[in-house]
């Protein structure tokens, strides 16, 4: 009888402690890294989270400005001092998983993510079948901004270049970037992707760049870059005398300010009758490994809240980040957004960006630099194929880096 009573009391104590822990939540500190332009917004949402979840009312949340392009490197370099929750772009997920610098998403939250976000963003937060992050946006792609008083036909790159030349204006495209460069290669039927395992290791390179298709794409880039209007770049903050630029939604405000009443945006143009392609990308929130289960639960709860449909829509209205949440995407304000509409049209011709090792980006930059330096202008098809053979060999070697 005493033994039975002891068991009953033990179970009661466990249930009581579980209830107490749930009621108490977490009252320590959580550090969050987000892009600088959403720091204020995130602080506001943290306060709303506390109101909605009083068990976390005493929790301290410190929001710091670290952009999606820098966060992963900082986390991997020093996990201990890194933020507990951090925003990053999907191309960094493999590195974070391989470094053991990110937690798996809590299973119940993973079900909600699957149900409420678009398929591209759900696929982007997974390695194999394991979900590692919370989708925050579905807007990390590129398209064409243009001045409609200069560009008369944005659907054809030859005509865009001709209009810019005639007006003494510039067309910007970042040809020495592995992110933008694929717009040409993918358009001409090329592939370059990597397979990874659930631990983030690169296990296979899939590519046909070193082929007739690759040579055709490379020749198209070389020819486009010869235009007097062509300028290498992808940011309106550094562009001058611009009438058209391949850029993303993050520069929508700058494009509106620059072009004024002549502001316009659309999918990328075709070149020689071939529709330019590219990557589609996503921003997400990850959680670094935690030893305190109560803190981990708090991080999961906060990350889920900050990526919920209502908050995604509010974030769009505050800073114009395009939602991955299906319901938020249907909001009239999102539907009527010129830049997001252009991105949406372009995404039909893109592939979701997977995981790429650092060596790929280095190889792509080098290839673009050679185009910009006119080193490939006089190369015949055989020579260009050899250039692409070397490029593919470098991409293959990058898997072991």
pLDDT averaged over residues: 91
Number of self-contained structural domains: 2
H/I helix tally: 17
Order of strands in the sheet with most strands: 2-1-3-17-6
CATH architecture of the largest domain: 3-Layer(aba) Sandwich
Distance between the termini: 64 Å
Query: Runs with pLDDT <50, length 5+?
Result: 1-23
Give the strand tally.
Answer: 18
Shape: globular
CATH topology of the largest domain: D-Maltodextrin-Binding Protein, domain 2
| CATH superfamily heading of the largest domain | Periplasmic binding protein-like II
The CATH class of the largest domain, by name, is Alpha Beta
The percent range for helix content is 40-55%
Q: Would you give an account of this structure?
A:
This protein has two domains: 27-139 and 282-341, Periplasmic binding protein-like II (D-Maltodextrin-Binding Protein, domain 2), CATH 3.40.190; 143-277 and 357-400, D-Maltodextrin-Binding Protein, domain 2 (3-Layer(aba) Sandwich), CATH 3.40.190.10. Helix content is 47%, strand content 17%. It has 17 helices and 18 strands. The longest helix has 23 residues, at 2-24. Residues 1-23 have low confidence and may be disordered.
């Amino acid at each position: 009888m005493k033994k039975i009573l002891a068991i009953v009391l033990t179970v009661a104590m466990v249930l009581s402690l579980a209830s107490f822990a749930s009621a108490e939540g977490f009252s320590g500190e959580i550090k969050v890294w987000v892009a600088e332009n959403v720091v204020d917004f995130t602080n506001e949402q943290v306060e709303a989270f506390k109101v909605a979840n009083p068990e976390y009312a005493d929790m301290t949340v410190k929001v710091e400005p670290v952009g999606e392009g820098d966060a992963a490197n900082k986390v991997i370099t020093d996990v201990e001092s890194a933020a507990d929750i951090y925003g990053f772009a999907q191309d960094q997920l493999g590195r974070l998983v391989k470094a053991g610098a990110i937690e798996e998403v809590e299973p119940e939250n993973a079900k909600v993510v699957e149900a409420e976000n678009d398929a591209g963003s759900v696929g982007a937060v997974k390695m194999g079948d394991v979900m590692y992050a919370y989708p925050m946006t579905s807007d990390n792609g590129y398209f064409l901004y243009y001045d409609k008083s200069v560009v008369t036909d944005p659907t054809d790159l030859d005509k865009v270049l001709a209009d810019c030349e005639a007006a003494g204006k510039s067309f910007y495209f970042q040809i020495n970037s592995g992110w933008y460069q694929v717009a040409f290669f993918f358009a001409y039927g090329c592939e370059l992707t990597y397979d990874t395992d659930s631990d983030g290791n690169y296990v296979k390179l899939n590519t046909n760049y070193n082929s007739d298709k690759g040579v055709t794409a490379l020749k198209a880039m070389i020819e486009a870059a010869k235009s007097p209007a062509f300028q290498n770049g992808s940011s309106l903050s550094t562009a001058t005398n611009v009438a058209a630029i391949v850029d993303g939604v993050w520069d929508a405000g700058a494009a509106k300010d620059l072009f004024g009443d002549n502001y316009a945006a659309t999918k990328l143009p075709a070149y020689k009758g071939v529709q330019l392609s590219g990557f589609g990308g996503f921003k997400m929130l990850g959680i670094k490994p935690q030893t305190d289960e109560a803190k981990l639960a708090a991080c999961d709860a906060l990350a889920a809240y900050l990526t919920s449909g209502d908050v995604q829509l509010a974030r769009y209205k505050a800073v114009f980040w395009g939602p991955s949440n299906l319901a938020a995407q249907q909001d009239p304000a999102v539907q009527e957004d010129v830049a997001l509409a252009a991105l949406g049209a372009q995404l039909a011709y893109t592939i979701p960006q997977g995981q790429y090792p650092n060596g790929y980006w280095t190889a792509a930059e080098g290839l673009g630099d050679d185009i910009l330096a006119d080193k490939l202008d006089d190369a015949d098809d055989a020579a260009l194929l050899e250039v692409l053979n070397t490029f593919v060999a470098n991409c293959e070697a990058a898997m072991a880096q």
